[in-house]
Amino acid sequence: MDYYGSQISALVAQLSGLPGIGSKTALRLAFHIVNMPKERVSALTKAITDAREHVRYCAECGTLTDQELCPICADQKRDHRTIMVVETSRDLAAYERTGKYEGVYHVLQGAISPLLGIGPQDIRLKELLQRLQGDVDEVIIATNSSLEGETTAMYLSKLIKPSGIKVTRIASGVPVGGDLEYIDEVTLLRALDGRTEL
Ligand code: ZN
Question: Is 20 exposed, middle or buried (0-12, 13-18, 19+ CB in 10 A)?
Fold first, then answer.
């Protein structure tokens, strides 16, 4: 039965389709939204529409941004000869929060997963190989320590090593299967400092 009227139900349905939002939270947010001042609701919908409209992938590293190049790739003070390979923009954000990494990134937008039918051609490997044609000293593989992340790391290392570029892997100590996003900064820095050559 539709207790709240179809428009509230439609809002709840939209909200509960978002990750991490269960039906109770969706209902709470829906009631919150209908009680918000109209200007704030407009600002919220505009922010959502603008972000969806303008956000794209950085032409260099593939992270989400609203410019041709993301602020990291555009920053000449960063070390462009060191490239850290991560699975997602969220992983990149986790390393950026440490404030200690001075190189640049490459976001794969996924990881190789034979189980899910995701092969090397389905992630941004071609783009990485293109970047390696330039002056690169080191590729740090910081994919997750899940099966997919390790498979991807192994594949990458085999692919890159013949070029003579140094390939390193962040230290384990990052919990197995752990999303980089949820790991604290100290652990991330330790993993980065403790990286070993493959
Ligand atoms: Zn970038």
Answer: exposed
Instruction: With H, G, I as helix, E, B as strand and everything else as coil, classify residue 175.
Output: coil
What would the pLDDT profile of 23-62 be if each residue is shown by its tens digit? 999 999 999 999 999 999 999 999 999 988 888 999 999 9
3-state helix, strand, coil in the chain (%, to 5): 45, 15, 40
pTM flag (> 0.85): no
- With residue 138 as reference, give the H or E element that holds it: strand 138-141
All structural domains of the chain: 6-54 (1.10.8.420), 77-169 (3.40.1360.10)
Round to the nearest angstrom and report the end-to-end CA distance of the chain: 60
Number of H-type helices and E-type strands within the chain: 8, 7
pLDDT tens for each residue of 149-167: 999 999 999 999 998 999 9
Which residues keep their CB under 5 angstroms from ion ligand 1?
58, 60-61, 70, 73
Distance 196 CA to ligand 1 centre (A): 25
